[in-house]
């Protein structure tokens, strides 16, 4: 029976085809022949099933037969979840078929049963979308080349997403219902309605700026899932995650350099075959695994990442030449799950299944039950991670069968893996805290221990506790009611041979733990579990103890209580309040076989609890937190939360512990810079409460090598050049297409001009190799990137900031990281916006200056009004930025003195222009100050250049430095002005326009110049002939405000304000004048000059200029960029890289080696790899310190071997001295004397050898 198909025919010009158009092809039997599907017939005409694909909701499976060239659809309903666990599965029934001779492969299936397939053509293969339906199938043409391009159906809305790899574009199509045919009858119900795929949106991939400048486009690599896009490109090991529904960036992961097979941008050539796949936890969506296999090295390489913390959890390599292994994540619906690896191993036809621990892939168990339910010689198989239960879909003999994976077996396998991991982590150097590796039976054991417990009834102590699984470990727990003390001891069963050649054994005590709060009744129950750990239920909470090897010491591995339990424990020491354990049992039962995580608030509360032993303090809970955070993924998950609470609780020692652990992980491996986001997120609080920790952190992280830098490279930049490696995805539209065309034209024009200059200078014949540089990274993860969440109100009026914008970090701007960050921001977008703003302000300045300065004889009234109106418009536009800045953070805005100049430069011209337009020419002082402020504002634009910006930074810094002294000086001047005002102000009323002669010696008419007539006999008249009319400057002390001005003039050396007064009869005036001139003019002013010199020396720093520049860039980011521009990955990446000339690196390392402290009082982390790259060995002091550390380790371990038999203490002089009389070791090679024969003393297998 023929199936009527609705076929989409491609247009001749596929490049211009956007919407998918359709033409109906009717079957030859006519429309009256309705198609009925007979699913009792053998599927695929009894041909072999080659491939199985499942929809993202796991409710529909599609099979493909390469021999039959057909696909079949099989529903998996909820009723299949009731399949009994075991060897018997349930056979599926297909409900749709599609067959076509050109059908080459099945690629994807959507939740609404659209299948993406590959069709063979002569020139190249093509995509098709098939609607699988019981009645008829619809076939749609999709532009693309399956050899390069890839598509998927978005699970949330069933849209179709496809990436065109060569064009660097992505399209999204969505379905739409249309009427394609109307029958002869006019009834509206008699119509043919079908579906078309319409173009919904286009997206473009944009590379970082360095690729635009060089006009190159590296090949991209990607993984597609129904929810996410994981994107990278060749040469980058950053894998970014994008949400397909919103097309927004979410996270990024760091690929391992030595795992070449999992990099999606690795070229798959004709010589070597490369197979890659990605799987994501199908229920919780918090685990992601990448699998890659290449015939280049015949290795299966696997990486597992946490999609919550973005941290790599584990990695694994399977060296196999014949294995066709696949991976799937199972068991995540009810527990923590595992990674199921399965395939045909070593050419066998029966697949084998292995369950690996997701947190450490080295641990695995063979899943025999799963292997047993799968029949031999299967055609295809698929593991489905379903919400309710995991399943295996098996194709054999053209049939499809579903088997439920036994949850019981998964639980058993996970418990085995956890026990293995527990035992491994008991080594003293790798001992870590995990709540998850404990077997699922641990909660059941604790619940059993709660049965019959009474609050005021102690356990029967002393007692011994052992376990059947580990019979060579014995715990002894004792409690003394009189003293309230508790003790826990552990013993080990040791075997030895006696003289009669019979093996004997005895219990040897290993360690004792007695750090408990004293209570009359404390221990309620104890039990030993499979791995030898001891569970203890006390009145304070649940504790678990373990033994670390080979030191064989007791460590507290776990502690937990709830709020009610804690409240009862704190309420009284006499145990007057009983406690009901039913609430605790219910809470533990809800945890689904998992121990609750540590309560950070409780841990912070108990952090400083200590016990004294042998005159030293023991901190059990501090040790517990340190152990807990010793695991990098755990630190990444909980570190920020603990650090925030520690800062709020003012626990400086805990804050320092967390910060030091982050720095230690960074020092061990630069790939751990992801952990620094813990500190970066808390930087504002840390800077406010613990600035020294921030200063040390900034210095330690200032010279971190790029994880891809292993050799010196050449660069054309001679500065500390910063750049990003992130790829941006933006939606294509007219505006952004033109924007990027302009950007591309700019770089093309720049390269042409640069080449012309090189030819003119004669440099075209010279071979240019560039400047040797070393590549570093700024390890402050997400330090300068913004949140991806969009909110119109907050993005416009109160934009959300980041750590770069929030605060000024003086310690940060003393390092290369800051200069690289600012150079990157400035050259990427800052300078373009800044110069544009400067240009418009220059126009504003010229328009206003011409409108208010040029006389009316030259400038007509109409033109003046136009200029003033234009000044008002531009001024208001500029002033809106100041208003937004003020609304954002008023206090911060008012603290910056340059903002006051900005407001004045906009408000005064606006007011002047409005006054002029409405009332005519304003008072002269108004345009005078308006033009002055505008001119000064123009000058402030120069502060972005270092040659000018240093002086602006000095002016601002000095003003802040001497501000308190100026306040003191002002109060002193104010006091003297007040004193002079009282002494010299007129005592009687006077009028400067009306002559008044009286006995008031301070009267301005008395103090003014008077001319007397001389008689012929040489005598003078009693009254003056001419009297000069006094002015306000005749007696400046007649008014208080002029008295204050007179004091200021006296400081500057102008004492004319006192020239009218006589000192002969006015001793008080003479005393005041002498006191003021000596104390203020001579002493304080010279002191002020000295303070200015010191302040200039302090503020004449490159870091202060960078801080000022960072404020300018921060204003551009917050108030000049569009909201979506702040989310461009190429402008605001999470990690920024930068290049430094090798000579500068060598100079800096030599400087740090020659001094004990760096410029910021802390030494940066200088890795051995960096020293090897720039060829700078360790300093002499460091080599001596390393040698001393080795000898101290040797001495300590020799004491452990035989403390009584070896009393010799080794030192550099004793071991290296070849002339000594007593030498237990021979002199070794130069540089490590005597160490060659030390290995012979470490023959005991229980003793760790020290390299």
Automatic annotation (TrEMBL):
Domain Ion transport as annotated: residue spans: 838-1097
Transmembrane intervals: 832-851, 863-881, 923-942, 962-984, 1069-1092
Membrane topology: Multi-pass membrane protein
UniProt record, GO biological process: calcium ion import across plasma membrane
GO cellular component, as recorded: plasma membrane
Subcellular location: Membrane
Superkingdom in the source lineage: Eukaryota
InterPro entries referenced in this protein's UniProt entry, alphabetically: Ion_trans_dom, TRPV
Pfam families reported in the protein's UniProt record: Ion_trans
Record key words, sorted: Membrane, Repeat, Transmembrane, Transmembrane helix
GO molecular function, one term: monoatomic ion channel activity
Keyword Membrane (UniProt): yes
Main location: membrane
Protein name: Ion transport domain-containing protein
Higher taxonomy: Eukaryota, Fungi, Fungi incertae sedis, Mucoromycota, Glomeromycotina
């Amino acid at each position: 029976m023929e199936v009527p198909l609705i076929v989409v025919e491609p247009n001749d010009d596929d490049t211009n085809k956007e919407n998918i158009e359709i033409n109906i092809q009717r079957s030859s039997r006519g429309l009256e022949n309705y198609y009925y599907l007979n699913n009792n017939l053998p599927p695929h005409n009894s041909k072999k099933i080659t491939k199985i694909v499942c929809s993202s909701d796991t409710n529909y499976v599609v099979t493909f037969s390469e021999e039959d060239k057909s696909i079949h659809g099989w529903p998996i309903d909820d009723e299949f979840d009731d399949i009994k666990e075991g060897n018997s599965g349930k056979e599926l029934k297909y409900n749709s078929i599609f067959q076509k001779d050109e059908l080459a492969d099945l690629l994807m299936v959507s939740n609404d049963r659209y299948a993406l397939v590959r069709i063979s053509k002569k020139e190249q293969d093509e995509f098709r979308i098939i609607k699988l339906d019981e009645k008829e199938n619809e076939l749609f043409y999709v532009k693309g080349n399956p050899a390069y391009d890839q598509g998927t159906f978005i699970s949330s809305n069933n849209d179709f997403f496809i990436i065109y790899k060569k064009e660097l574009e992505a399209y999204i199509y969505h379905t739409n219902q249309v009427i394609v045919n109307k029958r002869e009858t006019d009834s509206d119900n008699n119509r043919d309605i079908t579906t078309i795929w319409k173009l919904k949106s286009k997206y473009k991939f944009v590379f970082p700026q360095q690729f635009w400048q060089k006009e190159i486009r590296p090949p991209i690599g990607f993984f597609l899932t129904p929810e996410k896009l994981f994107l990278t490109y060749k040469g980058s090991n950053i894998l970014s995650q994008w949400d397909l529904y919103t097309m927004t960036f979410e996270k990024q992961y760091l690929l391992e350099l030595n795992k070449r097979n999992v990099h999606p941008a690795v070229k798959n050539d004709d010589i070597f075959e490369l197979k890659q796949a990605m799987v994501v936890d199908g229920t919780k969506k918090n685990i992601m695994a990448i699998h890659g296999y290449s015939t280049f090295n015949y290795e299966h390489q696997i990486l597992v990442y946490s999609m919550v913390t973005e941290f790599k959890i584990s990695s694994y390599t399977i060296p196999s030449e014949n294995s066709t292994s696949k991976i799937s994540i199972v068991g995540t619906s009810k527990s923590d799950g595992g990674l199921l690896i399965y395939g045909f191993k070593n050419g066998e036809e029966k697949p084998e299944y292995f369950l690996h621990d997701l947190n450490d892939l080295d641990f695995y168990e063979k899943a025999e039950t799963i292997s047993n339910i799968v029949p031999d010689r299967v055609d295809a198989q698929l593991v489905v991670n379903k919400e309710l239960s995991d399943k295996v879909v098996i194709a054999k003999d053209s049939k499809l069968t579903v088997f439920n994976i036994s949850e019981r077996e998964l639980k058993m396998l996970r418990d085995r893996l956890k026990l293995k991991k527990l035992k491994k982590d008991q080594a003293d150097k790798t001992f870590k805290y995990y709540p998850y590796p404990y077997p699922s039976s641990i909660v059941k054991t604790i619940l059993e221990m709660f049965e019959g417990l009474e609050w005021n009834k102690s356990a029967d102590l002393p007692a011994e506790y052992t376990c059947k699984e580990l019979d060579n470990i014995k715990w002894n727990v004792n409690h003394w009611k009189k003293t309230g003390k508790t003790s826990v001891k552990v013993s080990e069963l040791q075997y030895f041979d006696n003289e009669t050649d019979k093996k004997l054994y005895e219990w040897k005590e290993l360690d004792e733990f007695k750090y408990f709060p004293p209570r009359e009744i404390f221990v309620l129950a104890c039990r030993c579990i499979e791995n030898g750990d001891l569970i203890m239920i006390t009145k304070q909470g649940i504790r678990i103890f373990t033994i670390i090897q080979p030191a064989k010491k007791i460590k507290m591995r776990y502690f937990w209580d709830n709020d009610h339990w804690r409240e009862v424990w704190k309420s009284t020491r006499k145990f007057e309040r009983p406690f009901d354990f039913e609430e605790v049992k219910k809470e533990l039962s809800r945890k689904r076989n998992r121990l609750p995580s540590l309560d950070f608030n409780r841990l912070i509360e108990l952090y400083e609890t200590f016990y004294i032993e042998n005159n030293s303090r023991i901190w059990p809970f501090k040790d517990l937190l340190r152990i807990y955070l010793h695991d990098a993924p755990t630190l990444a998950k909980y570190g920020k939360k603990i650090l925030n609470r520690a800062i709020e609780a003012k626990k400086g020692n805990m804050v320092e512990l967390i910060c030091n652990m982050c720095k230690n992980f960074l020092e061990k491996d630069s790939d751990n810079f992801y952990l620094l986001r813990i500190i970066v997120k808390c930087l504002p609080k840390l800077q406010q409460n613990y600035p020294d920790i921030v200063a040390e952190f900034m210095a330690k992280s200032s010279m971190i090598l790029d994880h891809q830098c292993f050799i010196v490279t050449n660069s054309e930049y001679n500065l500390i050049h910063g750049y990003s490696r992130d790829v941006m995805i933006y939606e294509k539209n007219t505006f952004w297409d033109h924007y990027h065309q302009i950007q591309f034209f700019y770089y093309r024009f720049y390269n042409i001009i640069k080449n012309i200059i090189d030819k003119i200078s004669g440099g075209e014949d010279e071979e240019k190799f560039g400047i040797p540089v070393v590549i570093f990274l700024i390890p402050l993860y997400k330090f300068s990137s913004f949140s991806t969440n969009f909110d119109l109100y907050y993005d416009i009026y109160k934009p959300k900031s980041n750590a770069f914008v929030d605060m000024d970090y003086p310690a940060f701007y003393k390092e290369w990281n800051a200069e690289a960050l600012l150079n990157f921001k400035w050259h990427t977008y800052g300078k373009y916006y800044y110069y544009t703003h400067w240009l418009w302000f220059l126009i504003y300045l010229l328009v206003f200056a011409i409108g208010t300065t040029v006389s009316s004889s030259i400038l007509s009234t109409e033109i003046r009004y136009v200029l003033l109106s234009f000044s008002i418009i531009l001024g208001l536009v500029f002033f809106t930025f100041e208003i937004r800045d003020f609304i954002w953070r008023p206090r911060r805005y008012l603290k910056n003195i340059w903002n006051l100049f900005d407001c004045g430069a906009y408000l005064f011209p606006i007011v002047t222009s409005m006054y002029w337009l409405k009332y005519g020419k304003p008072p002269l002082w108004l345009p005078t100050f308006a033009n002055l402020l505008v001119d000064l504002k123009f000058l402030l634009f120069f502060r972005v250049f270092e040659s000018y910006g240093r002086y602006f930074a000095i002016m601002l810094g000095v003003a802040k430095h001497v501000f308190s002294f100026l306040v003191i000086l002002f109060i002193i001047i104010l006091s003297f002005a007040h004193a002079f005002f009282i002494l010299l102000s007129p005592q009687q009323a006077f009028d400067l326009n009306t002559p008044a002669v009286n006995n008031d010696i301070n009267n301005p008419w008395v103090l003014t110049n008077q001319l007397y007539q001389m008689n012929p006999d040489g005598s003078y008249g009693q009254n003056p002939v001419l009297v000069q009319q006094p002015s306000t400057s005749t007696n400046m002390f007649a008014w208080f405000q002029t008295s204050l001005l007179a004091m200021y003039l006296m400081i500057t050396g102008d004492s004319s304000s006192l020239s009218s007064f006589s000192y002969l009869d006015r001793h008080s005036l003479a005393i005041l004048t002498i006191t003021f001139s000596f104390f203020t003019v001579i002493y304080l002013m010279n002191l002020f000059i000295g303070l200015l010199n010191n302040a200039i020396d302090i503020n004449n720093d490159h870091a202060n200029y960078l801080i000022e520049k960072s404020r300018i860039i921060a204003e551009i980011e917050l108030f000049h960029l569009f909201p979506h521009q702040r989310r461009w990955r190429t402008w605001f990446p999470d990690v920024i890289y930068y290049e430094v000339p090798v000579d500068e690196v060598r100079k800096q390392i030599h400087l740090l080696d020659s001094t004990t402290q760096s410029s910021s009082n802390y030494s940066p982390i200088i890795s051995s790899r960096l020293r090897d790259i720039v060829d700078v060995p360790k300093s002499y002091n460091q080599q001596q310190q390393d040698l001393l550390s080795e000898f101290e380790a040797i001495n300590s371990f020799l004491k452990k071997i035989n403390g009584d038999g070896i009393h010799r203490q080794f030192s550099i002089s004793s071991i290296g001295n070849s002339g000594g009389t007593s030498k237990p070791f021979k002199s070794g090679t130069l540089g490590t004397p005597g160490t060659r024969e030390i290995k012979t003393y470490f023959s005991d297998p229980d003793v760790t050898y020290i390299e």
